[in-house]
Amino acid sequence: MLTVQHSPPPSPRATTSIQTFAAEADRERLTPAALAGVRRLADAWKLTGDEAAALLGVSNSTWDRIRAGTWRNVLSQDQLTRVSALVGAFKGLNLLFADGMADRWPRLRNSGPLFDNLSPVERMMEGGIPAMIEIRRYVDGLRGGL
After folding, report:
1. pTM, two decimal places
2. b/e code 99-112 from CB counts within 10 Å (16+ = b)
3. DSSP assignment, residue 46?
4. What pLDDT digit, counting tens, does each position of 3-19 carry?
């Protein structure tokens, strides 16, 4: 008699791994690209040093080193989550708008309930990671990505 052995099905976690930025190796690998992206975003959105530092969750002196390209540390899980939300909103805005509005929009006051008459930058600074994620989802929703 022929016996067939079946392998157990792969666990759902093995097939759909969600990026959590928890692993040090992942953070080391992602930090250079994340820093390049956030520097580009800060330039495009014309963020002040205080704004960029607050959005990234670092001190002003650390932001100055990041902007100069001399900071050699690894971003934390929290900081990579912030970068992910910011870069996602940046990308979504650039897909949504064909002109310079993509870079102006983050500074415009918004009367919608998510913003409470603050600009998206001000709202993200005030609300931290939860607000950053909500604004990214809002932008994705505007362009029909949700």
Report:
1. 0.83
2. eeebbebbeeebee
3. T
4. 555 555 555 555 556 77
The position carrying tokens 């100069």 is: 68
Is 133:123 a contact under the CB 8 Å cutoff? no
Rg (CA), the chain: 19
Residue 83 CA from chain centroid, whole number: 3
**Residue 63, class by beta-carbon neighbours within 10 Å (0-12 exposed, 13-18 middle, 19+ buried)?**
buried
28: which residues sit within 8 A by CB, 6+ positions away? 74
pLDDT in tens, 59-83: 999 999 999 999 999 999 999 999 9
Please give the Cα distance from 12 to 69 (Å, whole number): 39
